[in-house]
Amino acid sequence: MTVLGIVAGIGLMVGALIMGGNPKLFWSVPSLMVTVGGSFAAVLINFSFQDIKNVFGTVKQAFTTDLMDPEELIEVFGELARKARREGLLALEDDANRLEDPFFAKGIQMMVDAMEPQMIREILETDMAYMARRHEIGYGIFKTWGNLAPSFGLIGTLIGLVQMLAKLDKPETLGPSMALALITTFYGAIMAYMIFIPLAGKLSLRSEQEMMLHQMMLEGIIAIQSGVNPRILEEHLRSFLAPVSNRRRQPGEETLSGEEAFRQRI
User: Fold this and answer.
1) HSE-up of 16 (CA within 13 Å, CB side)?
2) How many CB atoms lie within 10 A of CB 207?
3) 220/228 Cα distance (integer angstroms)
4) Angstrom distance (rounded) from CA 132 to CA 219
5) d(CA 207, CA 198)
6) Confidence class of residue 65 from pLDDT cuts 50, 70 and 90?
7) Is the pLDDT of residue 37 over 90?
8) Tens digits of per-residue pLDDT, 90-133?
9) Residues 6+ apart with CB under 8 A from 99
10) Of 65, 128, 87, 95, which is closest to residue 261 (Cα–Cα)?
11) Distance between CA atoms of 120 and 107, rounded to whole angstroms?
């Protein structure tokens, strides 16, 4: 939906420019230099180079939907809990090696290694805290860039106005100069409200979803280690879900069974 939103927004904008007259009037390299280049330079000042380098790795999260379905996660935990009850915790070691999510695999492996539950909780909560910090920097960069872009658009407009006032002895140039000066404000608004602020919002949402999944994993791992009944474990994990999604599967509903979800995820 992120790609669809950006393409639809830019497409509608370009369509309006074409229908309204000559779209070439809205193309200005100096204006791009002031808004795009200037605002990016300000972002470089505000964040470290390593933070900005890392954000290009996290931005893909705004365009992908590879997070695990919480209902599938609950069913996987149900199967893991039943297996642990039948065969013991050591039987989950092979499952830990096959899990794709490093956080999930690490938690299961620590449980298999018989670490104390409190120690497991502290280690996983520390991982989550630093993960949240990395995510915060990631969407913070786009949020900051989105806040700066309109300001640099205004700076570009001021530059254009100064240049226009310097040519008052040539009245025929005032109109084109004024139009060119306003383009930077247009660029800044497009960058902020079409791209960067929505991207920051999507990354923030993805971060919240991922943190909720990891919190569910943490609680599930601790519950399996303490020998909680699988049905009670599933009900406990469903308490993380919103009322709409926090419902039992209906008879005949096409979905993965617990064992199928378990086999697909490990």
Assistant:
1) 7
2) 19
3) 9
4) 18
5) 14
6) low
7) yes
8) 888 888 888 888 999 999 999 999 899 999 999 999 999 998 99
9) 105, 108, 265, 266
10) 95
11) 7
Tell me the whole-structure pTM to 2 decimals: 0.76
Q: What distance lies between CA 12 and its chain's CA centroid?
A: 25
Look-up: residue for tokens 């943490």? 218
DSSP symbol at 251: T
CB neighbours (10 Å) of residue 99? 20
Measured CA distances, 215 to 139, 177, 222 (Å): 21, 56, 11
Q: What is the pLDDT of residue 110?
A: 92
Q: How many CB atoms lie within 10 A of CB 41?
A: 12
Burial (0-12, 13-18, 19+ Cβ within 10 Å), 241: middle
Q: Amino acid identity of 233?
A: L
Tokens 């601790």 locate to 222
Closest CA to 237 of 249, 221, 220, 250: 220
pLDDT per residue as tens digits for the range 139-181: 899 999 999 999 999 998 998 888 888 877 777 777 777 777 8
Instruction: Please state, as a whole number, how many other Cβ atoms lie within 10 Å of the Cβ of residue 87.
Output: 10
Q: What angle do CA 139, 142, 145 make, to 5 degrees?
A: 150
Q: 218 is written with which tokens? A: 């943490």
DSSP letters, 55-75, are HHHHGGGGT---SPPHHHHHH
Query: What pLDDT, in 10s, does the model give residues 127-150?
Result: 999 989 988 988 899 999 999 999
Report the C-alpha gap between 69 and 73 in whole angstroms: 6
Q: How far apart are CA 149 and CA 35, in angstroms?
A: 6
Token output for 34: 């002031």
Q: Left if phi > 0, otherwise alpha if psi is -120 to 50, otherwise beta: which for 258? A: alpha
